[in-house]
Write a structure and sequence with these properties.
Layout (H helix, E strand, L loop, with lengths): L1 H15 L2 H31 L11 E4 L12 E2 L1 H6 L5 E16 L17 H10 L8 E10 L10 H12 L4 E5 L18 E2 L2 E2 L1 E6 L10 E5 H7 L7 E2 L1 E6 L4 H11 L5 E4 H15 L1 H31 L1 H9 L5 H37 L7 H27 L3 H4 L1
Parallel strand pairs: 4-9, 5-8
Antiparallel strand pairs: 1-11, 1-12, 2-10, 3-4, 3-11, 5-9, 6-7
Helix pairs in contact: 1-11, 2-8, 2-9, 2-11, 2-12, 4-11, 8-9, 9-12, 11-12
Length: 416
């Protein structure tokens, strides 16, 4: 133990007495670790945003079509299946939900050529974010697809804060062609120009934006609106009023498993019955493992780890090369192959730990910038922090052992 402590002190002095070399190593290793954290953040954002709409819906059980893929491609559920489900005694209520994409008329900016809308009041950081994101950059009128969410105004399926937004404007939403626009939609969709702009269109038919609601943007849709059933069916291409996208069921407390079993017996095979947890987990799994978006970021984590390994290997190889006479002296003094190997391993771990804190700090800054500019929820989770630290230490350990192999094969006489 004493021998290991002495060798660890040698490794610490190697780091401390070569500040420039150690700083370069910490910068290189920290940069690669920041890349790992950034990719982990994107992968976590894919998982979080996969259920951003469902997190705002109140349901215990969901009825879906067997062909259901994602909330952007749901298939169709016969509406009378919800009526049949309500016949089960433990089902408290049901709410139909309609989901589809529609062409939205995005207003130009500025509305009047040669003028500009003054940016909304906010902190200096918020104004800087708006400038960087191009929120107030000139753009022409165009049409883009957004997610259209239809609901039955007599059976509100929403949770807070979306429920509050709907309830405060429900008397207007029940009128023809009235919608709510997601305040976090891409600037192209024009929330910043409401209520100055009034010529809104959905599928080339005039609609009126009567307010906004707050829902995080996902990777599948840059914008979203909420409309009642009548407005949805009037403006969106939909096969028939007799089918819906999802059937949302609320059940009596403690009866979820029994209700699911009963519904699977009662309902025909043209619908699937899933619990909230099963449904959301399938959605997350699809986005993380089956879409190109999730796969790209998963591969990004692997590539970032490989880059980190290459950087650490180069750093440690250069350090070993510069210290060959010192390691040769240790071997000539009878310490054998283990002493230089221990020094290299401990030195690598010290540099890995020293690079971790600045890497986390820089990653946090990149997370903030990404969330501010793209409105994608980037969260530096404890799970990702622990995983990044484990990857950093593991890579440092493996690479230092590979580097130390050069010393085992070296002859002290040749090193001088």
């Amino acid at each position: 133990m004493r021998r290991f402590r002495n060798l660890a002190l040698v490794a610490w002095r190697n780091v401390r007495l070569a500040p420039r070399r150690s700083l370069a190593a910490i910068v290189g290793m920290g940069s690669s670790l920041t890349l790992v954290l950034l990719q982990l953040g994107f992968l976590n954002a894919v998982r979080v945003t996969a259920t951003n709409l469902f997190d705002l819906l109140e349901f215990d059980i969901v009825l879906t079509a067997p062909s259901y893929d994602t909330m952007y491609d749901t298939g169709f559920v016969p509406r009378d299946r919800l009526t049949l489900a309500e016949s089960v005694s433990t089902v408290g209520s049901s709410s139909p939900l309609w989901l589809t994409f529609g062409q939205w008329r995005c207003p130009p900016y500025p509305l009047v050529p040669g003028t500009a809308v003054q940016p909304k009041a906010g902190s200096r950081l918020e104004r800087a974010r708006d400038r960087l994101s191009g929120r107030y950059a000139p753009r022409p009128m165009k049409r883009r697809q957004l997610l259209v969410i239809g609901f039955d105004s007599e059976r509100d399926p929403f949770r807070r804060p979306l429920r509050e937004s709907v309830e405060t404007t429900l008397f207007r939403l029940r009128l023809d062609s009235k919608v709510l626009l997601n305040t976090r939609s891409h600037p192209d969709f024009g929330w910043d120009l409401w209520p100055s702009f009034t010529d809104w269109e959905l599928e080339r038919s005039a609609v009126d934006v009567v307010g906004g609601f707050d829902m995080p943007r996902g990777f599948g849709a840059d914008g979203a609106i909420v409309a009642t059933r009548g407005t949805f069916l009037r403006h969106c291409p939909w096969p028939t009023a007799d089918v819906v996208s999802l059937g949302l069921l609320r059940v009596k407390p403690g009866t979820e498993e029994a209700t699911i079993a009963t519904l699977r017996e009662v309902l025909p095979s043209d619908v699937l019955v899933l619990s909230r947890e099963e449904f959301c987990e399938r959605e997350r799994d699809h986005w993380v493992t089956q879409t190109s978006t999730g796969q790209i970021f998963a591969i990004g984590v692997i590539v970032a780890t490989i880059v980190a390994a290459v950087v650490v290997y180069q750093v440690m190889s250069n350090d070993v090369r510069n210290r060959l006479p010192e390691f040769a002296t240790l071997k000539a003094m009878g310490h054998g192959d283990s002493a230089p190997a221990v020094i290299v391993v401990v030195q690598s771990l010290i540099l890995s730990l020293a690079s971790y804190a600045p890497a986390v700090l820089f990653a946090w800054l990149l997370y903030w910038l990404t969330e501010a500019l793209a409105t994608i929820p980037m969260v530096l989770t404890s799970r990702n922090l622990i995983l990044a630290l484990a990857l950093s230490l593991s890579v440092g350990l493996v690479v230092s052992l590979l580097t130390a192999r050069k010393l085992r094969a070296a002859d002290p006489a040749e090193l001088f």
